[in-house]
């Protein structure tokens, strides 16, 4: 829990009951399950309470060993003291069942066995009401006594209504490792189809390998042969169960974890409370092993993965999802909603939050999560669902059989269900596949997609997950970075959020970057401007945004860079066509990102006819439809933020961070080349216009691109591009346009560069040089 605290930037280690849905145990493990799951103590509190309890109970042995070596009355009182210290005076006899209204809380149970038949399945004492085999709603102390009534230590306990009481003893006799009971209970509580983040089984130390000899005759009254046989089984039962579980989940990596100190605890007996320090030493040594530490990291990642630690609810989007399902008029098929947005916009976390809320409200009886990255991941998800639904009673021949089984089974259900198809981002992987074949039928169903692919709209009602609002982004940034919500931080934070285009993943990354370095909020933009690539690529050691890329087995931490690279790889065709599309996207990043228009490229094509523009022409003539087709493809992949076609041609925009990423993904020399080409493209367009006849809006648009071009010259060309001979005409064109718009300072600077270049290249008396002198004089006169 300390690792969870560090990852989620919490003030204190969190409670296990806030992260685990079900906790159980036997004997000492049963007492701990009560402390953590029923009383909801922290780990440190539970350790302290158990230490006090053990010292109280085991400090003094009974004078005679009849009915156990230690007084059961002391154990009873010690448990009651713990209960009362947590729940308050007068609650020592509180029952195991929790009060109504705690349905979403962590549940717990402990195991004991009926003394009359110790080889049968254990009896469960639960903190909740069960639909099957309900058992007794005894007091907490009675459950603790029952699960702790180890033979030779404590006498058995009677539980039940008067006249029908049963004797119970510690279930370690017949169920030393109750993990199978845990899974069985989870299926009853949450449903067989519920996805499982992880199962953690904690042992009491690997047993010492010993033999069991037949006891002497005079001992058989104390240790009958049937008990000896059970004790022999008990020595190996726990590890055999652990091995069974490992085998059961071997094809589901990251689900089942077994933690068990390998050596050092085998000689520590239950009553040796004074050796708890020794137990701690051996345990820490075990936990420091590299493979064990990695397993704990994996557990922590699973505990924190389902919902990002600083999730900011986007209520309008959550409401739109629910309203769409609620008002559906389809009486035959499930209602389909598609969450569409660019990589990093928060689609998956939004879907998870919707699932979390509907789970709490019991809106759906079953919720399934499907990895829709490609047909293989869908097949694996459906296989898992099939096994859960069938409880492994059916052996399914192949992926198609699993799909048919799942869709047929769910279609027959009368209760409402939800299937989430996450990361449907790669349409090329689903050629010749009808996605609707994966849908069960029935009006009781709901299907939710997350996708960066705009074409997913054909599947159902599309909800566009745009950038966060400024207030939502600010809330996320302050939470993730650990900064207070005050006036100074809000002012600086809003500037950061705006610069990051209000993109959820980028803001989360920024907050993690600030937090990891203890960085003052106002210093972040200096880091961003001076080491942008490092800032945009970096993810924390533990990062909630993860997924498998391609055929990789391991998950990769997702940054804004990796999400966009995945989209970039989906650009269609190959060879020159693909490179030409990439060229268009990359050179566009060297204009102002907000309104890039078709005329820029058409005029440049007609004047220069560069090779990379061949995909836009038909028989040597500019093809506006071909140009728009390419832009539509890039928009479908969420690489373009907006795309509009009107009477003035096609206009598109880029998210500011995608603009940064497109520049950063190429080397410095290529940045210089693209910056110079963007300057040439803009100059060709300006040179083709009758500026006096341009509308004011068109002039303002050109000026915005001009400003960016001048900035690019300073950044990528060292301020020497505009003024160099190969861009001389562009320099004069830009200066003239600035002058006509009353931007005299900028015009003066550019005419000055042009004059220096002309004097060096053409000489002071050349007509071109003299024209530049005259233009510069006109600027001075206008000023």
Automatic annotation (TrEMBL):
GO MF, one example: ADP binding
InterPro entries linked: Acyl_Trfase/lysoPLipase, NB-ARC, P-loop_NTPase, PNPLA_dom, TPR-like_helical_dom_sf
Gene Ontology terms: biological process: arachidonate metabolic process; glycerolipid metabolic process; lipid catabolic process
The entry's keywords: Hydrolase, Lipid degradation, Lipid metabolism
Keyword Lipid metabolism belongs to the record: yes
Positions of short motif GXSXG: 25-29
Keyword Ribonucleoprotein found: no
One Gene Ontology term, aspect cellular component: membrane
Active-site residue numbers: 27 (nucleophile), 170 (proton acceptor)
Domain of life: Eukaryota
Protein name stated in the entry: PNPLA domain-containing protein
UniProt source species: Trichoglossum hirsutum
